[in-house]
Design brief:
The strands form 2 sheets. Strands 1-10-9-5-2-4-7-6 form an 8-stranded antiparallel β-sheet. The protein has a two-stranded antiparallel sheet with strand order 3-8. It starts with 5 loop residues before the first strand and ends with a helix. The protein is elongated. About 12% of the residues have low confidence. It contains 6 helices and 10 strands; from the N terminus they run ββαβααβββββββααα. It has 2 domains: 142 residues, Alpha-Beta Barrel (ADP-ribosylation fold); 51 residues, no CATH class. A hairpin with a 2-residue loop joins strand 9 and strand 10. By secondary structure, the chain is of the alpha+beta class.
Length: 209
């Protein structure tokens, strides 16, 4: 995964699939549900300004506005036409092997790709954990969107919890005496034990106790 901001040129890989979505509500749905899915029901589309047609829509606008049941991807490169000039768009990237060419003519047969089930049938919901999501932040640059329970976010939470648990469970040692003006050699076991640098067992072993 790229670090920091990602340039648009990054989204060009013959082995990867890309999907462009618009609207904070779409991303909110992905974050909350953990699924990549279309929000194409008539009731939803009627309240979403990103999906509403103008008074005199073009043929392209009418085609793009038709409800679709399956989340579609393009292979090899991202198609920013689906951003429709909206700077607040997102790119969803995946290399999951279940994404296969469409077999339906209306949906760009052979060129459009859908996530599929084991039988090869397109599915309406795709696990977001199998994707990476990037938000456009301006000037052709993108930043990674962290999903709940996925990716670095999950790793970081686990790491912090593990460190806290380790500190809580770590054995506590008491100094035989507070650090004194005794041995000054950093390799001396008394010096090390007084300063908590070695355990009681290691101190006993080295002192022959």
């Amino acid at each position: 995964m790229p670090l920091g901001k990602t340039e648009i040129d990054y989204f060009s890989d013959p082995e990867k699939f890309y999907r462009v979505v618009r609207g904070q509500d779409v991303i909110d749905d992905i974050i909350e549900s953990g699924k990549i899915r279309t929000l194409g029901s008539p009731s939803y589309r009627g309240t979403n300004p990103h999906l509403m047609l103008s008074e005199h829509p073009s043929l392209t606008d009418r085609i793009k506005s038709r409800p679709t049941f399956y989340p579609s991807f393009s292979k090899g490169s991202v198609n920013l036409d689906y951003a429709s000039g909206d700077p607040e768009h997102y790119i969803i990237e995946s290399n999951d092997k279940s994404i296969r060419p469409s077999t339906m003519g209306r949906h760009g047969k052979g060129s459009t790709h859908f996530p599929t089930d084991e039988a090869g049938n397109p599915i309406k919901e795709f696990d977001a954990k199998k994707t990476k999501i990037f938000k456009h932040v301006g000037d052709g640059q993108y930043e990674t969107v962290r999903l709940k329970g996925t990716g670095l976010g999950k790793y970081a939470v686990g790491l912090v919890e593990g460190l806290a648990r380790g500190l809580a469970e770590a054995p506590k040692y008491e100094f035989l005496n507070p650090p004194s003006a005794g041995p000054s050699d950093p390799n001396d076991p008394v010096y090390q034990f007084e300063r908590g640098l070695i355990s009681q067992a290691e101190f006993n072993r080295r002192m022959g106790i």
